[in-house]
Input
Amino acid sequence: MQELMQNNNEDDQGAFDLWLKGDTKGFSTLYEKYKNRVFGFLIRMTGNREIAEDLLQETFFAALRNADQFDRGRSFLSWLFGIAHKRTIDYFRHVKVESEHKEDAENAVGSRIDRPDKELSNKNIQAIVRDAVAELDPLQREVFLLREMAGVPFKEIAVIMNCPINTALGRMRLALKNIRKELKKRGIDGV
Output
């Protein structure tokens, strides 16, 4: 058994060395050998075939980008599973953050403007909100308008703005905070 594992590691090392030298056969060999095992892990972790397929690609791309960090004292499969694990954790963190921000956005200013206020008409509130939006930092304003006015998902906003999704989500949170602050200054509370 020990000898079989050692031969397997040596085969993997040889394929990995080819890969590092730019020979696509090395990558193909390792990909074909381990894709099903890693995919099985990812599908069990996520419960979703499409997400698992995306994470499988991300795992191998990350391995490709970080090949210089491979510790030859470990097995290639172990290293690959470590990368897959990190990608899965990142995915779940992203989902959690996006769901929190989605909840914030659903409770945001734009979704509550049409509710009449006892003291001010909708037109007055809308004008105040427009003024508050105009005063935002340009990046915050762009995220706010893409999300609230155009209904663009945060994932697409990140692509449009060429930034990580967490940056787009953070800008939205700041935009909402600044708009609420401006509304509060003008006597509109609870929005």
The chain has nine helices and no strands. Confidence is low (pLDDT under 50) at residues 111-119. The radius of gyration is 24 Å. The chain has two domains: 2-101, 109-185.
